[in-house]
Amino acid sequence: MAFITRREGKNSISYQVRYRVNGKVKVKSFRAKNETATSQRNAKKEAEKFLKKIESQSFLGLVKDESNMTFEKYSDVVFEIVESDLKTTTKKAKEVYRKVVNKNIGYMKLKDITPLFLDKYFFSLSKKKSHHVVERHREIINTVLESAFKKDLIVVNPMLKLDFKFKKGRLKEKKVIELDDFKEFIYHVAAIPGMIKYKFYLLFAFFTGMRRGEILALTWDDVDFEYYSIHVNKSLNRYGEITTPKTKSSIRYIVIHNMLSELLYEIKTYQDDMKRKHKEKYINNNLVICHDNGEYLQANAVDHFLYRHSRILNIEPITSHRIRHTFATLMRGMEVKDVQALLGHSKVEMTVNTYQHHDKYKDETVQEINARLPKIF
Question: What separation, in Å, do the N-terminal and C-terminal C-alpha atoms of the chain show?
Answer without folding.
Answer: 65
